[in-house]
Design goal:
The protein is of the alpha/beta class. The chain contains five helices and five strands. The chain has a five-stranded mixed sheet with strand order 1-4-5-3-2, sandwiched between helices. It is globular, with a radius of gyration of 15 Å. The chain starts with 13 loop residues before the first strand and ends with a helix.
Length: about 160
């Protein structure tokens, strides 16, 4: 048993067939705001930030067989809690590449970061990248293809 606080919560895992990025952000925001995890301005900030500083991540360096992901986030002032919100996408949607913003990526899974401490931001990003690098491709594909929030939570809680 580790003494670290989990970065995931069972009721904060989403699976959606929505294909509009901003509508996905809004659906997640509504639940987060109701729980008091984010502030009212969170929704506007995450949408604006995604336009200016894209968060799509190509998984090609890890494997040509993995779908791409995105790691949307806001500034810490819009957040009340440290958490990673997994969002499974039944249909891939377009995000621009974090490294090469002109490139569009088809993204199949989101890790939305909630983090109020700027010093921990790169730590959370590094944890996600380490998780992707250290988890077998077949297991990641099963995770990214799942439409069961309980499976997604259990997998991340046990393997992250």
């Amino acid at each position: 048993m580790t003494d670290t606080i989990s970065l995931f919560e069972p009721k904060m895992v989403f699976v959606t067939d929505e294909t509009d990025r901003n509508k996905i952000f809004k659906a997640v925001y509504d639940k987060l705001y109701k729980q008091g995890y984010v502030k009212e301005d969170f929704i506007n900030n995450i949408i604006e930030r995604e336009e200016k500083y894209p968060t799509g991540v190509s998984t090609r360096p890890l494997s040509k067989d993995l779908p791409n992901i995105a790691i949307p986030h806001t500034e810490g002032q819009y957040v009340n809690k440290r958490l990673i919100i997994p969002v499974g996408l039944k249909t891939p949607i377009k995000f621009n590449n974090m490294v090469n913003p002109a490139e569009e990526l088809e993204v199949k899974f989101l890790f939305i970061l909630l983090n109020k401490d700027p010093k921990m931001h790169s730590n959370m990003l590094a944890k996600i990248m380490d998780f992707l690098a250290q988890t077998p491709v077949a297991d990641l594909n099963e995770l990214f293809a799942s439409d069961d929030p309980n499976y997604i939570y259990d997998f991340l809680d046990n393997n992250f």
